[in-house]
Predict the structure of Nicotinate phosphoribosyltransferase.
Amino acid sequence: MVDIATRVWNHKWKIDPIVRSLIDTDFYKLLMCQSVFRNKPDTKVTFSLINRTKSVRLAEIVDEGELREQLDHIRSLSLSRGESTWMRGNTFYGKRQMFTPEFMDWFENLRLPPYHLEKRDGQYELTFEGSWPEVMLWEIPALAVLMELRSRAVLNSLRKFELQVLYARAMTKLWEKVERLRGVEGLRIADFGTRRRHSFLWQDWCVQAMTERLGDNFVGTSNCLIAKNRDLEAIGTNAHELPMVYAALAKTDDDLKQAPYEVLSDWHEEHDGNLRIILPDTYGTKGFLDRAPDWLAGWTGIRIDSGDPAEGAETAINWWRDRGEDPKDKLIIFSDGLDEDKILSLHKQFVGRVKVSFGWGTLLTNDFRDLTPDNSLAPFSLVCKAVAANGTPTVKLSDNPRKAMGPKDQIERYKRVFGVGKQEEMEVVV
Amino acid sequence: MVDIATRVWNHKWKIDPIVRSLIDTDFYKLLMCQSVFRNKPDTKVTFSLINRTKSVRLAEIVDEGELREQLDHIRSLSLSRGESTWMRGNTFYGKRQMFTPEFMDWFENLRLPPYHLEKRDGQYELTFEGSWPEVMLWEIPALAVLMELRSRAVLNSLRKFELQVLYARAMTKLWEKVERLRGVEGLRIADFGTRRRHSFLWQDWCVQAMTERLGDNFVGTSNCLIAKNRDLEAIGTNAHELPMVYAALAKTDDDLKQAPYEVLSDWHEEHDGNLRIILPDTYGTKGFLDRAPDWLAGWTGIRIDSGDPAEGAETAINWWRDRGEDPKDKLIIFSDGLDEDKILSLHKQFVGRVKVSFGWGTLLTNDFRDLTPDNSLAPFSLVCKAVAANGTPTVKLSDNPRKAMGPKDQIERYKRVFGVGKQEEMEVVV
């Protein structure tokens, strides 16, 4: 049993790495990495850290020396024998040898590429450049390092007793949320909280709490290291970076229009079953579905990651019906800004009409809101995104314009190409 | 920083004593012991354990072997050098040498006398017989042992993770209570929770929480060991056992009527200031005050330990006024079944009219209500009382007939002698 408060108090941070393994990352990163390794290995990309919560002035909170130390440590990591064995030998989504010998040989020899760090306007500019399959693996560890260094900077000012009370209250808070989710018929929840976790130990504790209390309703974690250590299912499929980079690589407007489907066509060849999950919102869900080829309707499900989630789910259900599919056979995964209230209401609204699953992220692994007097541990909206591919800037539109990314003129071009009209702005919670 | 959950999990109970020192007891026990040592050293008394919560069948929960082991361990304790130094050298209530060299010489050589234990009707009959100053020191450790063995028996069935959540929730619960008491102008609270604590470590944690959060509003603890270890004031004055034994020793009804005042007359010679606190309810508060000699009105305060506390306080205030005293100079100590709501409302009602202080007991150091599914850790009402003195049974009437004790005919006799009429029954919370 880990006493997190004591660990936090006793730790000399310098000898305690935040990211302790190359597989302390989201499972979908590895799946996507293998896909990229196979289909687009020579693409050059730039990933960049973006703090959407400008009021959290990271460069004033987090020491640059400590940040470099943690990032350098991540560059020193390589896949351990046990980790390699787990990836090679484990069954993922019911399938053996999910990762090919070619990919594993490459991954076993991988070290993460250099980073570029500077301060600007109270924020860190942290960028990674290089070949796509290498650079993409920086995303999750970079986010986890910044999030946890921010936590540590705040915790550093607390006395022992305050730390103990803080964690007792955080545990109670999470426990009460999990209690509310317990015993809800048919509920399926996974931990998606690696990138914005309060800390590694805390995420690990949250996963234990879910395991203890939710039983089979807790279906697994996106974090491979925790999945391996705790003998849980590793969960995840694919993310926006695939269509964003494929789109940036498109030479003409027509190619651009096809890019999101090309991504899924590559994916279709490699995966089946629960791994065939559409993420339709990169350039607007509605247009994406309207123009989708029929084979996509045969996929297992849709992940809804922006916009009004209930509306998105209704759109998906209608789309399946229009394409002659029975929504009851389909899976909808909600993964945007969830907390227990939203989970319960979405579950109630859609259970029985469609299969529903939840990827619970930041408010599972980092809900320290209102636990410090100035709310200095509240989570904030940090992302690390592919911002360019082979020298061309990437664009994301999303179903919420506040989540849009890219140069203004390119956003306009994408909106035109993808026929995205007026969008409803929604607050980005986390 | 003690991680209580881990300690509980790791502990092999057999090597971890519940009572770890002869001064792991209430301060008033030591004050009364000195008084008895001086005034009634040859009195033979019997103390007996009484579980007022019959539904908690202690003998079915607590293993007899473990109970004997803990009691035997207490008999092996003697005052350590550091403890003796603290008692001899410390300032109590602003006074040096509170304990006389004669008393300390005796106390340093003391070992607690034998106990008698048997099971009956699902309960333990635990009795102590011998000279008053020795036997009286069994009360607090005997209660603490039974309470904690009951806690341990329940905790023993919990898994590690459950223990961690349990203590996180208990800490959060207490922290929220203390938060409510924080910053209340003029509030004075002491820990009176030794006898019915969940465990020693837990009491110690509760005291730390009060120290951290309440600052000067937390005036100290009745527990001498914790007061010594944490450099706090040791708090307490006197208890029912003095008038109960004095009364039992009375040969005639007239002597009986005078006994409670004789107690206080002995006390008056030994103590002044904040140690001159009247405990008026042993044989009915109203009659006691009506018949009290005038010098008693000059005492510093009154402790209210049964009956309706607000009513008792009004009675005391009126009594002082009748005797020409200004209630504003007087102190009322509430110590019966307190929780934060009652503390706040009593404080609000009496602040400014009289000095007010609170001795917060069971619901400070043992509020594990509703933290286990079957409420198996809820505190219960266990007492250990002087039941006979020199062969005569003792009697307590109290201001709540449910707290009355003694043979029926003697209760009637006492009621007649002390002029106690009809009393209002009130639930005994803890």
